[in-house]
User: Fold these one by one.
Assistant:
Number 1:
Amino acid sequence: MFKKCEWCEKEYEYKSSKSKYCSNSCKLKASRMRNRDVSKLKFDFYKIQDIKKKELNYTQRQCILGGLIGDGSINRNSNYLITHCEKQLPYLEYKITLMGELFQRKPKKYKNKTGFQYCIGTIKHPTFEELRKIVYPNDKIKIGDWINEIDELGLAIWYLDDGTYNKKHGGQCSLSTDAYSLEENETIRDFIENKFNIKASTTKYYDKRYDKTRYRTLFSRVEGKKLRDIVSKYTPECLKYKIK
């Protein structure tokens, strides 16, 4: 015997006449809507399913790729996450605008040792699952060939996340690539030069806090100007201090 699921409205074969849902998943979704607007929640559910079927557009993909080296990450549940401090909330809102429908909730505010933070996650998407396998081969980010897809917008997001403009040193710029090995830093350096014709240098320094040698990507005054010229096309007003 068959009946229609009261949540997803698909027909299913039932064993008990008291059965209302085709699966435990539909039963759980239905239970979450109690005392709330049923029609709106069901619309949101189907809307998310439609979004999952779409390919990411250029802007969304570049924001994600650039952010993965910066302040973004993909968790094990295939959600893309972004976290920024309270001061950078306008920048977070700018990213949300660029990525559009991938975000279906508002940022959550919480407090840690450094102050208030805002975190937001996208819906689950097949692209994030694919990217996680490539970017996190051993549950840790690994710089590889995937960065070759990064274009101007992705580079801008990367710099706005982790870049520094040092006026005191004649306009030099840097990218905080401290978390990556020497080999990965060299891959980053070569990629930026080959893709954007911007020369960079990999510098070494000693991190006393963690008793570890780290590396950073630096740009001279002339090369830094080239970098900032690209980034300026995509820089919101709240982060203008990073380019001038």
Note: The two ends are 70 Å apart (CA to CA).
Number 2:
Amino acid sequence: MVNVDQDFGHEYLKKEKSHMELSAIITPSAEGGYVAFNPETGTTTQGDSIEEALANLREATELYLEEFPLTLTGRSLLTTFQVATHA
């Protein structure tokens, strides 16, 4: 989408930033805090809180995508499965 803004009688074209919806898997860290992982890019970060881990993941993933653009072919599906435990 393109917006046209007027500034001192001149027209400038401004592109709106597009957004990509990606997945985040956040797990507690054994050392404290949280680990955040994005499966689409493989980026992984950490933070003292869920919010900090997610913000760090967003920043790391944006930096990654600047170097390695990604074209998504569909939405990710998150599910769970069970495995047998051994005592």
Note: Residues 1-15 have pLDDT under 50 and may be disordered.
